[in-house]
Amino acid sequence: MKRTLASLDAGALDGRRALVRVDFNVPLEDGRVADDTRIRAALPTIRHLRERGARVVLLSHLGRPKGGPDPKQSLRPVARALETLLGAPVVFLADPLSPDAVAETKRLPRGGVALAENTRFQPGEEKNDAALARGFAALGDFYVNDAFGSAHRAHASTEAVAHILKPAVSGFLMEQELRYLGAALADPRRPFVAVLGGAKISGKIDLIESLLPRVDEIIIGGAMACTFFRAMGLETGTSLVEEDRVGMARTLLDRAGRKLVLPSGAVVAQRLAADAETRTVKRDAIPAGWAMYDIDHLSAEDFAGAIESAGTVVWNGPMGVFETPPFDRGTLTIAHAMARATARGAVTIVGGGDSAAAVARAGVTDRMSHVSTGGGASLEFLEGKALPGVAALDDA
Q1: Which of 116, 119, 163, 224 could be a cystine partner for 157, CB 3.0 to 4.6 Å?
Q2: Confidence class of residue 11 from pLDDT cuts 50, 70 and 90?
Q3: Which residues are catalytic?
Q4: Sheet strands (E) in 311-392
Q5: pTM: predicted TM-score of the whole model, two decimal places
Q6: Nearest alpha-carbon partner for 170 in 343, 370, 4, 347
Q7: Of 1.10.10.10, 3.40.50.2300, 3.30.70.330, 3.40.50.1260, which CATH number belongs to 5-173?
Q8: What architecture is domain 188-382?
Protein backbone atom coordinates (compact mmCIF):
# COMPACT_ATOMS: atom_id res chain seq x y z
CA MET A 1 0.00 0.00 0.00
CA LYS A 2 1.13 3.52 -0.80
CA ARG A 3 0.66 6.66 1.24
CA THR A 4 -2.24 8.74 -0.01
CA LEU A 5 -3.10 12.42 -0.22
CA ALA A 6 -5.91 11.80 2.28
CA SER A 7 -3.29 10.80 4.86
CA LEU A 8 -1.84 14.34 4.95
CA ASP A 9 -3.59 16.56 7.48
CA ALA A 10 -4.76 20.04 6.58
CA GLY A 11 -1.90 21.66 8.46
CA ALA A 12 0.59 19.91 6.20
CA LEU A 13 -1.10 21.42 3.13
CA ASP A 14 -1.95 25.00 4.07
CA GLY A 15 0.35 27.44 2.31
CA ARG A 16 2.63 24.73 0.99
CA ARG A 17 3.34 24.09 -2.68
CA ALA A 18 1.92 20.78 -3.92
CA LEU A 19 3.78 19.54 -7.00
CA VAL A 20 1.16 17.35 -8.68
CA ARG A 21 1.88 15.09 -11.63
CA VAL A 22 -1.34 14.83 -13.63
CA ASP A 23 -2.18 13.21 -16.96
CA PHE A 24 -3.32 16.06 -19.20
CA ASN A 25 -2.31 14.22 -22.38
CA VAL A 26 -5.52 15.29 -24.12
CA PRO A 27 -6.43 15.67 -27.80
CA LEU A 28 -6.17 19.19 -29.23
CA GLU A 29 -8.06 20.48 -32.26
CA ASP A 30 -7.53 23.98 -33.67
CA GLY A 31 -5.75 25.05 -30.50
CA ARG A 32 -8.52 23.86 -28.17
CA VAL A 33 -9.00 20.81 -25.95
CA ALA A 34 -11.23 18.39 -27.85
CA ASP A 35 -11.88 16.00 -24.95
CA ASP A 36 -11.41 17.13 -21.34
CA THR A 37 -12.07 13.74 -19.70
CA ARG A 38 -8.55 13.45 -18.31
CA ILE A 39 -8.60 16.98 -16.96
CA ARG A 40 -11.89 16.33 -15.18
CA ALA A 41 -10.47 13.14 -13.70
CA ALA A 42 -7.80 15.18 -11.88
CA LEU A 43 -10.23 17.77 -10.44
CA PRO A 44 -10.96 15.98 -7.12
CA THR A 45 -7.26 16.05 -6.19
CA ILE A 46 -6.79 19.65 -7.36
CA ARG A 47 -9.89 20.86 -5.52
CA HIS A 48 -8.95 19.01 -2.32
CA LEU A 49 -5.58 20.78 -2.28
CA ARG A 50 -7.04 24.20 -3.13
CA GLU A 51 -9.71 23.96 -0.45
CA ARG A 52 -7.01 23.31 2.14
CA GLY A 53 -4.91 26.30 1.14
CA ALA A 54 -2.20 24.54 -0.84
CA ARG A 55 -0.49 26.23 -3.76
CA VAL A 56 -1.00 23.75 -6.61
CA VAL A 57 1.68 23.32 -9.29
CA LEU A 58 0.79 20.85 -12.04
CA LEU A 59 3.14 18.83 -14.27
CA SER A 60 2.06 16.86 -17.35
CA HIS A 61 3.27 15.67 -20.70
CA LEU A 62 1.36 16.07 -23.95
CA GLY A 63 1.99 13.95 -27.03
CA ARG A 64 5.41 12.85 -28.21
CA PRO A 65 7.34 15.97 -29.27
CA LYS A 66 10.42 15.17 -31.30
CA GLY A 67 13.57 17.26 -31.43
CA GLY A 68 12.56 19.82 -28.83
CA PRO A 69 9.55 21.99 -28.01
CA ASP A 70 6.68 21.97 -30.50
CA PRO A 71 4.08 24.78 -30.23
CA LYS A 72 1.41 22.34 -31.44
CA GLN A 73 1.99 20.25 -28.30
CA SER A 74 2.07 23.10 -25.82
CA LEU A 75 -0.09 22.85 -22.70
CA ARG A 76 -1.29 26.47 -23.02
CA PRO A 77 -4.71 25.39 -24.39
CA VAL A 78 -4.98 22.97 -21.47
CA ALA A 79 -4.38 25.80 -19.01
CA ARG A 80 -7.31 27.68 -20.55
CA ALA A 81 -9.56 24.61 -20.35
CA LEU A 82 -8.57 24.05 -16.72
CA GLU A 83 -9.41 27.68 -15.89
CA THR A 84 -12.91 27.12 -17.25
CA LEU A 85 -13.41 23.92 -15.25
CA LEU A 86 -12.08 25.41 -12.01
CA GLY A 87 -13.66 28.82 -12.44
CA ALA A 88 -10.33 30.28 -11.31
CA PRO A 89 -7.17 31.64 -12.98
CA VAL A 90 -4.34 29.26 -13.86
CA VAL A 91 -0.80 30.61 -14.11
CA PHE A 92 1.14 29.13 -17.03
CA LEU A 93 4.84 28.41 -16.45
CA ALA A 94 6.37 28.59 -19.92
CA ASP A 95 9.85 27.75 -18.61
CA PRO A 96 9.35 25.65 -15.47
CA LEU A 97 13.09 25.32 -14.83
CA SER A 98 13.75 29.06 -14.63
CA PRO A 99 14.23 30.99 -11.36
CA ASP A 100 11.22 33.08 -12.37
CA ALA A 101 9.03 29.98 -12.45
CA VAL A 102 10.13 28.98 -8.93
CA ALA A 103 9.42 32.51 -7.71
CA GLU A 104 6.03 32.43 -9.44
CA THR A 105 5.03 29.27 -7.54
CA LYS A 106 5.94 30.92 -4.25
CA ARG A 107 3.86 33.98 -5.14
CA LEU A 108 0.75 31.93 -5.80
CA PRO A 109 -2.05 32.75 -3.36
CA ARG A 110 -3.34 29.99 -1.10
CA GLY A 111 -5.50 27.83 -3.37
CA GLY A 112 -3.77 29.20 -6.46
CA VAL A 113 -2.98 26.95 -9.42
CA ALA A 114 -0.10 26.90 -11.92
CA LEU A 115 0.47 24.58 -14.89
CA ALA A 116 3.98 23.98 -16.20
CA GLU A 117 4.75 23.56 -19.88
CA ASN A 118 4.93 20.06 -21.40
CA THR A 119 7.44 17.99 -19.41
CA ARG A 120 8.52 16.26 -22.62
CA PHE A 121 9.85 19.55 -23.94
CA GLN A 122 12.72 18.82 -21.54
CA PRO A 123 15.26 16.41 -23.10
CA GLY A 124 15.87 14.61 -19.79
CA GLU A 125 12.22 13.79 -19.05
CA GLU A 126 12.01 10.39 -20.73
CA LYS A 127 15.56 9.55 -19.59
CA ASN A 128 14.48 9.91 -15.94
CA ASP A 129 17.23 12.50 -15.56
CA ALA A 130 18.05 13.29 -11.92
CA ALA A 131 19.08 16.88 -12.63
CA LEU A 132 15.79 17.56 -14.38
CA ALA A 133 13.94 15.96 -11.47
CA ARG A 134 15.70 18.36 -9.10
CA GLY A 135 14.55 21.23 -11.32
CA PHE A 136 10.97 20.01 -11.12
CA ALA A 137 11.28 19.46 -7.36
CA ALA A 138 12.18 23.14 -6.88
CA LEU A 139 8.59 23.97 -7.89
CA GLY A 140 7.05 22.23 -4.87
CA ASP A 141 7.31 21.40 -1.19
CA PHE A 142 5.77 17.93 -1.46
CA TYR A 143 4.80 15.61 -4.33
CA VAL A 144 1.50 14.09 -5.41
CA ASN A 145 1.28 11.63 -8.30
CA ASP A 146 -2.22 11.51 -9.77
CA ALA A 147 -1.15 10.38 -13.25
CA PHE A 148 -1.85 6.67 -13.27
CA GLY A 149 -1.80 6.68 -17.09
CA SER A 150 1.91 7.59 -16.94
CA ALA A 151 2.86 5.51 -13.91
CA HIS A 152 4.32 2.69 -16.01
CA ARG A 153 7.00 5.06 -17.32
CA ALA A 154 10.13 5.81 -15.29
CA HIS A 155 10.38 9.49 -16.24
CA ALA A 156 11.82 12.45 -14.36
CA SER A 157 8.38 13.84 -13.49
CA THR A 158 6.90 10.47 -12.48
CA GLU A 159 9.72 8.51 -10.83
CA ALA A 160 12.93 10.44 -10.10
CA VAL A 161 11.20 13.46 -8.55
CA ALA A 162 9.34 11.21 -6.07
CA HIS A 163 12.69 10.25 -4.53
CA ILE A 164 13.62 13.92 -4.02
CA LEU A 165 10.45 15.66 -2.88
CA LYS A 166 8.87 14.31 0.31
CA PRO A 167 6.31 13.31 1.26
CA ALA A 168 5.50 11.66 -2.08
CA VAL A 169 1.91 10.42 -2.10
CA SER A 170 -0.79 9.21 -4.46
CA GLY A 171 -3.64 11.50 -5.51
CA PHE A 172 -7.28 10.45 -5.43
CA LEU A 173 -7.36 9.19 -9.02
CA MET A 174 -4.18 7.15 -8.55
CA GLU A 175 -5.55 5.76 -5.28
CA GLN A 176 -8.80 4.72 -6.97
CA GLU A 177 -6.97 2.99 -9.81
CA LEU A 178 -4.76 1.04 -7.44
CA ARG A 179 -7.68 0.09 -5.21
CA TYR A 180 -9.89 -1.32 -7.97
CA LEU A 181 -7.16 -3.02 -9.97
CA GLY A 182 -5.41 -4.30 -6.87
CA ALA A 183 -8.61 -5.78 -5.42
CA ALA A 184 -9.41 -7.47 -8.72
CA LEU A 185 -6.13 -9.35 -8.56
CA ALA A 186 -5.85 -9.93 -4.83
CA ASP A 187 -9.41 -10.67 -3.71
CA PRO A 188 -11.92 -10.77 -6.57
CA ARG A 189 -15.57 -11.58 -6.16
CA ARG A 190 -16.30 -14.86 -7.92
CA PRO A 191 -16.79 -15.85 -10.63
CA PHE A 192 -13.89 -13.71 -11.91
CA VAL A 193 -14.15 -13.22 -15.69
CA ALA A 194 -11.60 -11.49 -17.93
CA VAL A 195 -12.67 -10.28 -21.37
CA LEU A 196 -9.74 -9.72 -23.72
CA GLY A 197 -9.87 -8.42 -27.27
CA GLY A 198 -7.92 -6.35 -29.73
CA ALA A 199 -5.85 -7.12 -32.75
CA LYS A 200 -2.85 -9.09 -31.56
CA ILE A 201 -2.24 -11.90 -29.12
CA SER A 202 1.39 -10.74 -28.73
CA GLY A 203 0.30 -7.67 -26.78
CA LYS A 204 -1.75 -9.76 -24.37
CA ILE A 205 0.49 -12.80 -23.73
CA ASP A 206 1.77 -11.51 -20.38
CA LEU A 207 -1.75 -10.54 -19.35
CA ILE A 208 -3.15 -13.97 -20.21
CA GLU A 209 -0.28 -15.66 -18.34
CA SER A 210 -0.91 -13.48 -15.28
CA LEU A 211 -4.68 -13.92 -15.26
CA LEU A 212 -4.92 -17.66 -16.00
CA PRO A 213 -4.28 -18.84 -12.43
CA ARG A 214 -6.54 -16.11 -10.99
CA VAL A 215 -9.66 -16.10 -13.15
CA ASP A 216 -12.49 -18.54 -13.63
CA GLU A 217 -12.78 -17.71 -17.33
CA ILE A 218 -10.95 -15.73 -20.00
CA ILE A 219 -13.13 -14.68 -22.92
CA ILE A 220 -11.24 -13.96 -26.14
CA GLY A 221 -12.54 -11.72 -28.93
CA GLY A 222 -11.20 -9.43 -31.61
CA ALA A 223 -8.73 -10.36 -34.30
CA MET A 224 -6.52 -12.04 -31.69
CA ALA A 225 -9.09 -14.87 -31.68
CA CYS A 226 -8.00 -15.70 -35.23
CA THR A 227 -4.52 -16.68 -34.08
CA PHE A 228 -6.17 -19.15 -31.71
CA PHE A 229 -8.41 -20.38 -34.58
CA ARG A 230 -5.30 -21.05 -36.66
CA ALA A 231 -3.79 -22.93 -33.71
CA MET A 232 -6.92 -25.12 -33.75
CA GLY A 233 -6.30 -25.89 -37.43
CA LEU A 234 -9.18 -23.75 -38.70
CA GLU A 235 -9.32 -21.74 -41.93
CA THR A 236 -9.02 -18.00 -41.20
CA GLY A 237 -9.21 -16.55 -44.72
CA THR A 238 -7.53 -13.14 -44.89
CA SER A 239 -8.05 -12.44 -41.17
CA LEU A 240 -5.19 -10.97 -39.17
CA VAL A 241 -3.16 -13.89 -37.81
CA GLU A 242 0.20 -13.65 -36.03
CA GLU A 243 1.89 -16.61 -37.65
CA ASP A 244 4.83 -16.50 -35.23
CA ARG A 245 2.44 -16.79 -32.28
CA VAL A 246 0.38 -19.77 -33.46
CA GLY A 247 2.50 -22.23 -31.50
CA MET A 248 2.18 -20.12 -28.37
CA ALA A 249 -1.59 -19.93 -28.86
CA ARG A 250 -1.72 -23.73 -29.15
CA THR A 251 0.21 -24.06 -25.87
CA LEU A 252 -2.13 -21.63 -24.14
CA LEU A 253 -5.17 -23.57 -25.36
CA ASP A 254 -3.71 -26.79 -23.98
CA ARG A 255 -2.84 -25.24 -20.62
CA ALA A 256 -6.02 -23.24 -20.12
CA GLY A 257 -8.51 -25.92 -21.02
CA ARG A 258 -12.07 -24.73 -20.51
CA LYS A 259 -10.93 -21.49 -18.89
CA LEU A 260 -10.19 -20.01 -22.32
CA VAL A 261 -13.40 -19.25 -24.22
CA LEU A 262 -13.30 -18.37 -27.93
CA PRO A 263 -16.07 -17.05 -30.22
CA SER A 264 -18.20 -19.73 -31.85
CA GLY A 265 -18.69 -17.59 -34.93
CA ALA A 266 -17.62 -14.47 -36.78
CA VAL A 267 -18.87 -11.58 -38.85
CA VAL A 268 -16.73 -11.57 -41.99
CA ALA A 269 -16.26 -9.34 -45.01
CA GLN A 270 -13.94 -9.08 -47.99
CA ARG A 271 -12.95 -5.54 -47.03
CA LEU A 272 -13.14 -3.28 -44.00
CA ALA A 273 -15.80 -0.71 -44.90
CA ALA A 274 -19.18 0.36 -43.57
CA ASP A 275 -20.85 -0.57 -46.87
CA ALA A 276 -19.06 -3.91 -47.34
CA GLU A 277 -21.06 -7.09 -47.81
CA THR A 278 -20.97 -9.09 -44.58
CA ARG A 279 -21.67 -12.70 -43.66
CA THR A 280 -22.15 -14.40 -40.32
CA VAL A 281 -20.37 -17.76 -40.24
CA LYS A 282 -19.29 -20.42 -37.78
CA ARG A 283 -15.67 -20.17 -36.73
CA ASP A 284 -14.83 -23.28 -38.77
CA ALA A 285 -16.43 -21.83 -41.90
CA ILE A 286 -14.52 -18.57 -42.55
CA PRO A 287 -14.23 -18.54 -46.36
CA ALA A 288 -11.01 -17.92 -48.25
CA GLY A 289 -10.71 -14.27 -49.27
CA TRP A 290 -12.83 -13.10 -46.30
CA ALA A 291 -11.67 -11.73 -42.95
CA MET A 292 -13.17 -11.74 -39.47
CA TYR A 293 -13.99 -8.18 -38.32
CA ASP A 294 -16.30 -8.93 -35.38
CA ILE A 295 -17.63 -11.75 -33.24
CA ASP A 296 -21.05 -13.02 -34.27
CA HIS A 297 -24.33 -12.36 -32.45
CA LEU A 298 -24.48 -15.77 -30.76
CA SER A 299 -20.95 -15.40 -29.38
CA ALA A 300 -21.74 -11.90 -28.14
CA GLU A 301 -24.84 -13.15 -26.34
CA ASP A 302 -22.94 -16.09 -24.82
CA PHE A 303 -20.21 -13.74 -23.61
CA ALA A 304 -22.83 -11.33 -22.24
CA GLY A 305 -24.38 -14.15 -20.23
CA ALA A 306 -21.04 -15.03 -18.65
CA ILE A 307 -20.41 -11.38 -17.81
CA GLU A 308 -23.82 -10.86 -16.23
CA SER A 309 -23.38 -13.86 -13.95
CA ALA A 310 -19.88 -12.82 -12.84
CA GLY A 311 -18.79 -11.27 -9.55
CA THR A 312 -15.79 -9.45 -11.06
CA VAL A 313 -15.19 -8.57 -14.71
CA VAL A 314 -12.05 -7.03 -16.19
CA TRP A 315 -12.32 -5.95 -19.84
CA ASN A 316 -9.42 -4.95 -22.05
CA GLY A 317 -9.78 -4.76 -25.83
CA PRO A 318 -12.69 -4.61 -28.31
CA MET A 319 -14.43 -7.62 -29.85
CA GLY A 320 -14.12 -6.29 -33.39
CA VAL A 321 -13.24 -3.22 -35.43
CA PHE A 322 -15.73 -1.17 -33.46
CA GLU A 323 -14.70 2.11 -35.08
CA THR A 324 -16.34 0.88 -38.31
CA PRO A 325 -20.03 -0.09 -38.03
CA PRO A 326 -21.50 -2.66 -38.44
CA PHE A 327 -18.43 -4.31 -36.91
CA ASP A 328 -19.12 -2.57 -33.59
CA ARG A 329 -22.04 -4.76 -32.52
CA GLY A 330 -20.08 -7.36 -30.57
CA THR A 331 -18.16 -4.70 -28.63
CA LEU A 332 -21.31 -2.72 -27.83
CA THR A 333 -23.04 -5.90 -26.64
CA ILE A 334 -20.18 -6.47 -24.20
CA ALA A 335 -20.39 -2.85 -23.00
CA HIS A 336 -24.10 -3.14 -22.23
CA ALA A 337 -23.59 -6.51 -20.54
CA MET A 338 -20.96 -4.92 -18.30
CA ALA A 339 -23.46 -2.22 -17.34
CA ARG A 340 -26.08 -4.83 -16.45
CA ALA A 341 -23.52 -6.78 -14.43
CA THR A 342 -22.69 -3.64 -12.44
CA ALA A 343 -26.37 -3.13 -11.68
CA ARG A 344 -26.54 -6.71 -10.38
CA GLY A 345 -23.66 -6.02 -7.95
CA ALA A 346 -20.60 -7.12 -9.91
CA VAL A 347 -17.34 -5.20 -9.84
CA THR A 348 -16.72 -4.15 -13.45
CA ILE A 349 -13.36 -2.74 -14.50
CA VAL A 350 -12.62 -1.36 -17.96
CA GLY A 351 -8.92 -1.32 -18.75
CA GLY A 352 -8.67 1.98 -20.58
CA GLY A 353 -7.86 2.62 -24.25
CA ASP A 354 -10.26 1.24 -26.84
CA SER A 355 -12.44 -0.41 -24.20
CA ALA A 356 -12.97 2.94 -22.47
CA ALA A 357 -13.86 4.47 -25.82
CA ALA A 358 -16.33 1.64 -26.41
CA VAL A 359 -18.22 2.12 -23.14
CA ALA A 360 -18.32 5.84 -23.86
CA ARG A 361 -19.81 5.19 -27.31
CA ALA A 362 -22.35 2.85 -25.73
CA GLY A 363 -23.26 5.59 -23.25
CA VAL A 364 -22.57 3.41 -20.20
CA THR A 365 -19.34 4.86 -18.78
CA ASP A 366 -21.12 5.92 -15.60
CA ARG A 367 -22.52 2.41 -15.20
CA MET A 368 -19.11 0.76 -14.76
CA SER A 369 -17.52 0.30 -11.33
CA HIS A 370 -14.28 1.72 -12.67
CA VAL A 371 -12.96 2.89 -16.03
CA SER A 372 -9.18 3.10 -15.96
CA THR A 373 -7.53 6.27 -17.23
CA GLY A 374 -4.39 4.41 -18.20
CA GLY A 375 -4.53 1.79 -20.93
CA GLY A 376 -0.86 0.80 -20.89
CA ALA A 377 -0.50 1.27 -17.14
CA SER A 378 -3.58 -0.79 -16.31
CA LEU A 379 -2.38 -3.54 -18.65
CA GLU A 380 1.04 -3.70 -16.98
CA PHE A 381 -0.52 -3.60 -13.51
CA LEU A 382 -2.82 -6.51 -14.35
CA GLU A 383 0.19 -8.34 -15.76
CA GLY A 384 1.69 -8.14 -12.28
CA LYS A 385 4.47 -5.72 -13.24
CA ALA A 386 5.70 -3.02 -10.87
CA LEU A 387 4.83 0.48 -12.06
CA PRO A 388 7.82 2.82 -11.51
CA GLY A 389 5.63 5.84 -10.79
CA VAL A 390 3.83 3.91 -8.07
CA ALA A 391 6.83 2.10 -6.61
CA ALA A 392 8.61 5.45 -6.03
CA LEU A 393 5.83 6.78 -3.76
CA ASP A 394 6.06 6.58 0.03
CA ASP A 395 4.80 3.38 1.61
CA ALA A 396 1.78 3.73 3.87
Answers
A1: 119
A2: confident
A3: 38, 200, 353, 376
A4: 312-316, 347-350, 370-371
A5: 0.88
A6: 4
A7: 3.40.50.1260
A8: 3-Layer(aba) Sandwich (3.40)
